[in-house]
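Quick question, first post here. What does this chain look like in 3D?
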Amino acid sequence: MQATLDLRVAPAPPAAASSLESLLHTTSRAYGRFALRRKALQPPEIQQLAERLLTEENPVVRRNLLHIFTRVKFPLDYRPILALARQKMTSGNRLATEYAIEDLQHLRAPAIRAFALQRLASTTQPGRYAGLLVSNYEPGDAALLTALVGRFHNEHTVEALAVSCVDIYRANPTPECAAPLLALYHKMNCGLHRKEVVQLLLENDVLPTEVNEEIAFDSFLPTRQLHRPA
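> Answer (accepted):
Ran it through. Tokens below.
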């Protein structure tokens, strides 16, 4: 999640970057991410790219391969991706490590959940690791997420955590989403994210009456449109 939040408007594509191989070698981060995100990959290609990632030594190509699997589920054993996500983050490997962490959002394993819980206990960037619960959520995790919301006050940190929580509860609908989502609702100023939180509360039938009444006057039109007359 964190790495893809950094995406900016991509520059015009270089003339030589039309093929997948060219895209994998591009050092233009904005264009590479933009183009790879939209490259239509067939299952055999995905399998080949996953196998290549395991042996790729070129750091640029490896980083771009990791980016592909932020959008497409890595089809092989999760352990090489987890190992990359665990590595100490430096200025040289930061983006590749963030991509590896994002890759894990699509994969389910007890070791991935344990990694997420370990990092969430001490991180200052909860949005980076909370997303790992998208595929590794367990009943009762609402208490953990609610506590995380309470720990942080920086606007951007809270919004990044909101993105992860929305992804988690889209993938894992449950009435227990009420506590963390309401904590986010009352803490955020971002109209778009508050609207997504309200939408999930409605879908899980846990929108409090007082919030329903309040959103009738929300400054963000899409949120006002979610109001349900009594």
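The radius of gyration is 19 Å.
Confidence is low (pLDDT under 50) at residues 5-17.
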